[in-house]
Amino acid sequence: MYMIQRIVNALKLDRPIRYYSLLYLLVILLTYSSSYFYYQSKSYSEWTSSASYLKLLDSFAESCMSTQKNKDFCLSQLSLIAKKKIDRYGHQVFFDDEEIIDNRRYKDRKLISNEILLKSLNTRITVIKTSIPKSIWTSVFHSATFSIFDIIDRINKGQTSSSIWKFVKDTAWYRSVPHFSFLILVFFTSGFMKRSIIAQITLVDELERLEYEELDKDI
Description:
By secondary structure, the protein is an alpha+beta fold.
């Protein structure tokens, strides 16, 4: 208990602003950790999904050439597959140096690139995804602010209310769930801890007072 009291005194946590600032810093660090591990797993899953997708295109190309014997026809079919592929964050696809499609939602994020040489068509296919932010702190900022600046930007661009509501419901809300969950958890837990610590400190002070009174009687 003496150690806890020393920490409280050293950090001056008896001051509300300092105490709640420290708690919020803890929330920010927890949000960062959550975002970091999420995007680490997301990066791996994006790369593996791209690899699987390219293997599928390779198999299709071999099958197409074995039956159609027409390179241009098979390339056109592959192009249709690439354009029709559904991807939440979109993707960019190249056949050699020719761009087939670029429907990426975010184009200023970290590049995740994967490629394969289709031997049956002598064509190199490259798939690029940009679903991972370049900085985790950007994700933390969006999470902590409920993407308010993105919402304002959409309003200024004149987007419809239904489009903005869709962004709030499908993107902003899920971005902010980790942050506000940690916020509630940390402040709720700290409330119980604070009351417990105060009660223990009060008890220790009372015991010390009684001890001093006993010593005074003996003297």
